[in-house]
Amino acid sequence: MDYRILPGVPAASHLYMHMRGEGLGKMPGFGRRIDPDGFALIHERIDTMDTCDETE
Fold first, then answer.
1. Collapsing DSSP states into helix, strand and coil, what is residue 22?
2. What pTM was computed for the model?
3. If you count Cβ atoms within 10 Å of the first and of the last residue's Cβ in the chain, which end, N or C, has fewer?
4. Nearest in space to 8 (alpha carbons), one of 56, 47, 52, 53
């Protein structure tokens, strides 16, 4: 399946993969310097998520 965010699994989440520079839709599309602290924050957030419930 395609997961934009797969709670608890950053490596299987499109958001994380695109930030790492994988796939056609890599982010950001203009420039490639990703702030390592921001990148670590996104990884930690996805890793600690239990659900993608909109009310969370």
1. coil
2. 0.68
3. N
4. 47
